[in-house]
Design goal:
Distance between the termini of chain A: 50 Å
Strand content of chain B: 15-25%
Number of strands of chain A: 9
Number of strands of chain B: 11
Order of helices and strands of chain B: EHEEEEEHHEEEHHHHEEHHH
Helix content of chain A: 25-40%
Radius of gyration of chain B: 21 Å
Largest sheet of chain A: 6 strands, mixed
Oligomer: heterodimer
Order of helices and strands of chain A: HEEHEEHEHEEEHEHHHHHHH
Strand order of the largest sheet of chain B: 1-9-8-7-6-2-3
Strand content of chain A: 5-15%
Distance between the termini of chain B: 48 Å
Shape of chain A: globular
Structural class of chain B: alpha/beta
Largest interface: A-B, 56 and 58 residues
């Protein structure tokens, strides 16, 4: 949740940039009128539209996804003109990772960053209530919920953070052109590496059985792929061409196809996944895909001491080899 | 006519001997329709299952036949089934799908050229027992689409909760036959219509999501309009709003290799939101971008289906808005489109 002052300042600089022709449009979040606790991506192209832009605890979508891949939202730019975008910490890492891989032209972008106060898992809030939400507001420490049956509830905000935000070490957006003032409430954090180590203590068979039992309800809607900022194969995704006769590369939802699809997805992300948690958030079947991504992030860090998306220059470990590796250490 | 709640469950348990029973059951964090193995696992508290009930009649992956060297084996005929605990929006969804899958006279003067034998077989053998909704979700909008939270449309038997029993609204011969066969479980008494009206009123008073359907059938005028870029903003072209829609029916046939000279032929769901759905062999894609694909989905529900069958292919279940990873709301889209007309 942004303070009034910061929101006004943010809208002012965006309006000025649009008026002066510096940017062709600005990609941010706006509230959805009929759905409490949700926001959606929005491109503001006129100063009036800028007044719709917000940033709050429900701005969960990763906007860097919309700058590449098969959903281009960057309009045609005049010479010297840029396209504005607003990023949280996780969005900025994905943007940097894509810039490092030459998938996004950073010179075309004007990036405004925020120090993210963490986002709220609205499905977690809804699942704990007797009646669904009619309206929800956030004052920084408490969520004020008005329910459909007329009752009201005040919830302690720290119980409802999206798990991905609790372990996020990069709340502040990285390498942005403008960082908005840090006046938002601080989010609690939990020791992610410790949690991951205790998770990895569990027997492999147990972990595998759990993941497979959860994945078995996958419908192959590909929301996790399409929401993933690291998936930029456009229409060349192998899952879009399952014309091969192999039984594991088929559109049908056999367990073989489901596992093949997820293996391909996460193998390709093994050293590139920034652990932004979009796949788990997008999943309509609430499959805890974050268990896979968190483990990937942990392994990348402990194996290569590398965190994807922390620099726009760094090459990912599997994309290069060192002479020592060939000659032996 | 009415039945005690626990008696209804034991009747369902009893029916498992002769029928395959599908009912909502908790599966991890969500509730889905699954084959009932244990009657205790049925979850009637969850208002809306993640996947719609159409899955029991129109499975996501359905075996059509098996090929072994030069022999073709048709898939086994399905068993009689009971679809228990379906919500009115999902029951109505199956009714809407009849338009597409069954050979009927169409509103545009033509006749549906083909009847899907796989749909018909399952549909004829499935008894739909729906249950009225006592409370809505924030994206429920069935009342905007000609049905309501206690509507019997599409169901064979509708259960309306009233205290510790269900009032019954029986709308088909199939439903009557089921009740006749299990007569001893049911008792007379109560006013089903009044109970239905009561549940409807109570639930409707809490609904906040409204879909403007007054302009349905006129959206074709906006076909070339740039407004589709605006309403589809943020769409990532995944298949959520189509796979989880109770009235979406696109499918394709796939051959799955099972051995050196054998294969299975499957009927699998497909989605018009997938980039390759409309991609032609030449490389040309008539729906090249997100806006064109989103337009197709909205027009299919609110234009094409109306022209062909005289009904809107939407039941107001709200899944497309609720589950959308990009937060795109159907209510907002219809409002924006209506404003542009």
């Amino acid at each position: 949740m942004m303070t009034e002052k910061t929101l006004a300042y943010f809208r002012k600089i965006v309006k000025e940039a649009i008026k002066s022709g510096k940017i062709a449009g600005f990609l941010g979040w706006r509230e959805v009128a009929d759905m409490p606790g949700k926001t959606r991506a929005f491109v503001a192209t006129t100063p009036e539209e800028v007044d719709l832009l917000v940033f709050n605890s429900f701005s969960r979508e990763n906007l860097s996804r919309l700058l590449g891949g098969k959903t281009f939202y960057i309009p045609e730019l005049k010479k010297g003109q840029k396209f504005g975008v607003m990023v949280k910490g996780c969005d900025s890492r994905n943007l940097l990772a894509n810039v490092a891989e030459n998938k996004v032209d950073r010179d075309n972008l004007w990036v405004i960053g925020v120090k993210c106060p963490g986002t709220i898992d609205i499905d977690l809030v809804r699942s704990g209530l007797d009646s669904d939400i009619k309206n929800i507001t956030d004052d920084g420490t408490t969520l004020h919920v008005e329910m459909l049956d007329g009752k009201k509830a005040d919830l302690v905000k720290s119980d409802y953070y999206d798990p991905r935000c609790l372990r996020c070490p990069y709340t502040s957006a990285l390498e942005v052109d403008e960082l908005l003032p840090d006046d938002m409430p601080k989010k609690p954090t939990k020791n992610w590496e410790k949690w991951m180590e205790s998770y990895l203590q569990k027997p492999f068979e147990e972990r595998r059985a759990y993941i497979i039992s959860q994945l078995s309800r996958c419908t192959m809607c590909f929301a996790c792929r399409d929401a993933c900022p690291g998936c930029y194969c456009n229409t060349n995704c192998i899952m879009d061409y399952p014309k091969l006769p192999e039984p594991y590369l088929q559109k049908g939802t056999s367990l073989a196809s489901i596992l093949t699809y997820h293996f391909i997805h996460y193998f390709h992300l093994s050293d590139r996944c920034t652990n932004c948690g979009e796949c788990a958030r997008a999943c309509p079947e609430s499959i805890p895909l974050n268990l896979i991504t968190e483990q990937l992030g942990y392994m990348t860090k402990t194996t290569w001491d590398f965190e994807p998306g922390t620099s726009d220059k760094a090459k990912t470990p599997l994309a290069l080899y060192k002479v020592e590796e060939v000659l032996g250490r | 006519m009415k039945i005690k709640k626990e008696k209804m469950l034991s009747l369902i348990d009893e029916s498992r001997k002769t029928h395959v029973v599908y009912a909502p059951q908790k599966n991890g964090a969500v509730t889905n329709f699954k084959k009932v193995e244990d009657i205790k696992s049925i979850d009637l508290k969850t208002v809306r299952t993640a996947t719609p009930a159409k899955e029991a009649v129109f499975p996501q992956t359905e075996l059509i036949y098996k090929v072994e060297s030069d022999k073709v084996h048709q898939a086994d005929a399905s068993k009689p089934a009971i679809l228990f605990g379906v919500r009115p929006c999902d029951a109505r969804g199956i009714q809407v799908l009849d338009n597409f899958f069954l050979a009927r006279d169409r509103k545009d003067g033509g006749k549906q050229p083909f009847e899907d034998p796989y749909w018909k077989e399952k549909r004829d053998k499935t008894l739909i027992i729906a249950i009225a909704c006592e409370k809505p979700l924030s994206t429920c909008a069935c009342s905007s689409l000609g049905i309501h939270p206690a509507s019997e449309a599409g169901s064979d038997i509708l259960l309306v909760p009233e205290g510790d029993s269900y009032q019954l609204v029986v709308s088909t011969e199939k439903g009557k036959a089921f009740i006749e066969a299990n007569k001893s479980m049911f008792e007379d008494g109560g006013d089903a219509k009044a109970a239905q009206e009561k549940v409807k009123k109570a639930c409707e008073s809490m609904m906040i999501f409204k879909l403007d359907t007054s302009k349905a059938g006129q959206y074709m005028k906006l076909y070339e309009s740039p407004i589709w870029q605006k309403v589809s903003q943020g769409c990532i072209s995944c298949g959520v709003c189509t796979f989880f829609c109770p009235t979406c029916h696109c499918f394709e046939m796939r051959d799955r290799k099972t051995g050196a000279v054998s294969c299975d032929r499957d009927k699998c769901w497909d989605s018009c939101h997938f980039t390759v759905y409309s991609l032609e062999a030449s490389g040309h894609n008539p729906r090249p971008d997100v806006a064109a694909r989103y337009r197709n989905k909205i027009l299919d529900k609110y234009q094409y289906h109306m022209t062909l069958y005289g009904e809107i292919a939407c039941t107001g279940c709200g899944r497309c808005s609720d589950l959308c990873p990009s937060g795109i709301s159907l209510s907002e889209t219809l409002k924006t489109l209506g404003g542009a007309l």
